[in-house]
Amino acid sequence: MRRLILLLVVAMASSEEFFFLGHEFSRTPLGDRIDKASVKMLKEAYLSATDSNVVTSPLGALLLLSLYSAGAQGKSREEIMQFLGSTEYKELFDSYSHLSNRFASMDPSYLTLANKVYVAKGYTLADEFTNTARSYNSEVDAIDFQDPKTAAQIINQWADEKSKGHIKDPVSENLLDKSAAAALFNVIFFQGHWHVPFQAAETEEKDFHVNRSLVVKKPMMHLRKSLFYNEDNEIGAKMIELPYQESGFRMVVILPNEVDGLSSVLEKVAEKGLLDDVFALSPAGREINLYLPKFEIRSKLDFTQILPKLGVTRIFSDGAPGIVKERDVTISEFFQEAIVKVDEEGATAGAFTGAIAVPVSSNSKPPKPMDFIVDHPFLFAILHEDVVLFTGIYTH
Asked: Is the distance from CB of 163 to CB of 108 less than 8 angstroms?
């Protein structure tokens, strides 16, 4: 049996400036399904990672799984559909193809979503799979895996271009199997812009509690603004929302109530998802005095180890007959490289173009600001409306 190499490349999420926008988002069944799968993947990625700082774009993996399911049958397709939360394949295809095209049509200056299918010399993609790939807005090209050095250069050049230079050489020639029949790739690149800046002059070294016994110094950015806020005593955390200038995009920071509360919060979030809390965010009614560490995380994740823990096993053993015409294939490699960078750079100008209005009587005083000090391990997510693009954990 020839083996299909499934390679996932996910690029950078970068935050540079801050902005306040309206908050009229719709919640959809697809958003809910992506949410639940995403936080389960984050949990397993965190548990399996060698570094406890983790970032991942579950959406990239979910897109490739849905694409692969077009050529799979039987139990393999059933496992994928169950993990993706779908009961009918047509509904799965329609929702993910629409999502791929919607994101691919956005301004590439801030969002790039690109899918790529390479087919090895001597093989031909199955007609239905080709049509599905086109419906996912995927590029389709031939490649010679018998020359792994050149093949790796071609793949890396594509990844470099789509990630605007932030993902360098994710594929080595040693990773490429000369017997591979095809390869699937995905890149997601997001560069959001804060509109009201974190002033670099206000960034200062402050205590960050890695755990109850270890305290280190971290550069903490500072912002004092009206923000959307929520507390959830059920999961034991509070959260704020930092909207981007790009319409519909936002980062949500989930801060456990306890210094050592990350594991408990992650366990509960993995059960219920994030969207209930995201859609419960509301104006705090007063300014929030926010301290948030600058951070950059780069992760390399092996989904061949993560997915079986989530019930997706047969894609690595059972042959898929509908990828190439010549024979069945299985997945030999499924990995992801992701990076997120959050800092105050690029905030040289900007205006506060929105505000939250609260009733104030003529003889009342504004309420005191609420402190939101992110000084111990936390979770974060970057969303477009109700779709999770990136999730991550920062611990040190």
From this structure: no
The token duo for 115 is 């899918």
C-alpha 136, offset from chain centre:
18
Choose from 6-10, 161-165, 173-177, 291-295 the range with maximum mean pLDDT: 291-295
Q: What is the dihedral of CA 271, 72, 49, 192, to 10 degrees?
A: -80
The Cα–Cα gap between 318 and 325 comes to: 16
What 3-state DSSP class applies to 165?
Answer: coil
Name the 3-class secondary structure at 217. Answer: strand
| Cα distance between residue 230 and residue 265, in whole Å | 15
Tokens of 30: 């697809």
Among 264, 267, 262, 237, residue whose Cα is nearest residue 252: 237
Amino acid at 1: M
| Contacts of 185 by beta carbon, 8 Å cutoff, 6+ apart | 7, 8, 9, 64, 115, 116, 117, 118, 155, 158, 159
| CA-closest candidate to residue 250, choices 266, 217, 227 | 227
Which tokens is 114 given?
A: 């690109």
Tell me the whole-structure pTM to 2 decimals: 0.86
Instruction: Give pLDDT tens digits for 199-210.
Output: 778 889 999 999
* E-assigned strand segments in the chain: 2-6, 12-15, 54-56, 111-120, 138-143, 182-192, 204-209, 215-232, 237-243, 249-256, 282-293, 295-302, 329-331, 335-342, 370-373, 378-384, 387-394
Q: How many CB atoms lie within 10 A of CB 355?
A: 10
Enter the tokens of residue 318: 């059972």
Question: Which has the closest alpha carbon to 380: 296, 285, 280?
Answer: 296
**pLDDT, tens digit (0-9, with 9 covering 90-100), for 339-375:** 888 876 422 211 111 122 222 234 456 667 888 999 9
- CA–CA separation, 191 and 244 (whole Å): 10
